[in-house]
C-alpha cells in the first residue's frame, strides 16, 4: 500500500509542486492584499480624522472671526458716528436758529459722508480681519499637528492682530477726511429745494464711489487696505515681518481687491434699498413750525417722515424735496427704523458676515496656511 502511494506521489510529483506553488502564491498574495488593505484603511481613517479635526478647527476659527468682526464693527461704527455727529445739528435746527440754512447744508454733507464712510470702513475691516484671522488660524492648526517649535506663539499672535487697531482709530479718521472731500464735490451742488428721485439719490452714491475709485491724490480706499493695516508702524521682529508681508501680498492681490470692491458696491445697494422705503412711505409735514429757506418752506415735519401710502406706489416715480429726505436718512443710521428692526451699520455688518465671497476667501486662506510645509 505504501509502495502504491509512493508511486502515485512520484507519478504526480510535478502536479503537486505546481499546485503547492499556486496555493502558496495565493496565500502570500492574499496576505499581501490584506496587509495593504489594512494599511489603506488605516491611512483613510487617519486622513478622515485629520479632515474632521481640521474642519472643526476651521469652524472654530470662523466663529472667532465672526465674533471679532461684530465686536470691532460696532466700535468702528460708533467711532464714525462720533466723528460725524449729526445729533447736535438736528437739535439746533429744532430750535429754529437764524443760521438754519447753513445748518441744513452742513447736515446734508455730514449724512452722506456718514453713510459712505460706514460702507467703506466696514467693508475694509471685514476683509482685513478675515485675512488676518484665517492666517493665524492656519498657523495655529499647523502648530497643533506638528511637534516642532511653534510657528506662532501668543505674543506674536497678539502683536499681529493688534495691527488692525490702527484702522479702528487713526485709519477711520483718515478715511473720513478723504470721503468728506468726495461727498462735498457731489452733494454740495444739490439744492435743498430740489425734488429728487430715488434714481438720483443712487446716482449721488455712485458718483462718490467713482471719485474715490479714481482718486489720484489720496488713492482708492479699497486699494489702501495695506496702508491702513501696516502703514503706521515699523516691524522689527522676523516672524512678524514674514506674517505682515504674507498679509500684504494677499490684500494687494487682484482677487481680494475685487472682492472688497464688490462688497462696497453691494453695501451701497443695501443702503439704496433702505432709502427706497422712505420714498414709498413718504408723507406731508405734520407741524406748522416753519423753517424757511429762500422761498421754500420747510417744517419740522421734515424731521419725521413715514406715513403708510394708500395703494401701490411706483418708487421710481416718487419725488421728494431733498430737505425732507435728509433727516429721515439720518434716522436710518442712528435709530432702529430699518427692516428687521436694525439700523444701517448693523445691516451692513450682518450682510458682510454672510457674504459668500468673503467666506470663501477666508476658507481658501486658511487652507493655504494650514497646509503649508
UniProtKB/TrEMBL annotation:
Highest taxon listed in the record's lineage: Eukaryota
Keywords annotated in UniProt: Peroxisome biogenesis
Pfam families: Peroxin-3
Task of the protein: Involved in peroxisome biosynthesis and integrity. Assembles membrane vesicles before the matrix proteins are translocated. As a docking factor for PEX19, is necessary for the import of peroxisomal membrane proteins in the peroxisomes.
Assembly description: Interacts with PEX19.
UniProt-listed PANTHER family: PEROXISOMAL BIOGENESIS FACTOR 3
Name of the protein described by the UniProt record: Peroxisomal biogenesis factor 3
